[in-house]
């Protein structure tokens, strides 16, 4: 069923649809990030409102991958690689004459990386999109699309032949959860439950370390029309719904999940409180049940968490965005130290003027070194830019290249056509149930 976006989000999207100026937002030079604070790191920006929605690190290396899209007549896949020194665009495939959106990425090894999303017509997703990196190039790998309106939002791997992706598809009557599995040979749909008779959606998936247990989170719509949290667990043979609390009886959304062990799982998002303010929602699994853990809100209108990375029981990062009193959208990073959530100062390259946009959309840790956060920023009346930031504690090594790097990435732009730049579209054919900060190039389910 169609949903109406909250007025706040509609206003933001309208601002994004204004014509973009030709000049660059800023000049940032590649450099190694410093430790002791969140530090802005240069990332490449192809033409046409580029934005990142997913980031992943490569186990046992300092490498990282970030994925998203950029709109240049069509919307193209955007993939960038960190080799320990700089972020560089890596050529990624696209379907002919279609719009593409990459939302999630995961890495098994330097030569085994997956990215997922969707593709379709003008600002709409008609089919799942799965890309694979083999150490030399990215290629499209066929994946099932149950209907003409379907997409994948998140991906995680336990091994080369055990990869999971989650998202949604539309049945004849409602939006349904979608879970797909790669067995080393092909992608297939794995049955997943839905709550009630209305819309359901999975936004994120995470694996419990050193196991084949998984968690997936999202939300579903109640019969009264309000969204509630949705949590599912893979027990080794089937996906089951696990009860999860809501912040309040209005709107509740879970957008990220991460685990450091079987009794330590975090899910994050936001909810609409009794005063009508959107505030952070942080929930923890202790091995028995999910419980809400208080986290700070920084806004009188919206503070939303988009992703979480759990390194240990005393080291967890959650990222997102919030509006200040000047109606600027600012990046947000919160840290759990085992006792409380604390807000850290973060960079905002688009500034603090009214309608400025700065947002973190994904986070990933480099074990023993630090944490990457990615997203996008946009100075008012200008196209968006990719946003990458790194945090490492004082005294930690910075993510510099390893002695034997597997740098096979090339700085080749993904777009193969060169028409004139056009503003990113914001209108969608189907209303979105996801009132959270996001740039125009990202279509969402109704």
Describe this structure in words.
There is one protein chain. Helix content is 2%, strand content 46%. With 446 residues, the protein is an all-beta fold. It has a single domain (7-391), classed as Neuraminidase. The chain has a four-stranded antiparallel sheet with strand order 1-28-27-26, with no helix packed on it. A four-stranded antiparallel sheet has the order 2-3-4-5, with no helix packed on it. The protein has a four-stranded antiparallel sheet with strand order 6-7-8-9, with no helix packed on it. The radius of gyration is 20 Å and the shape is globular. The chain starts with 6 loop residues before the first helix and ends in a 55-residue tail after the last strand. The model is unreliable at 1-29 and 401-446 (pLDDT under 50).
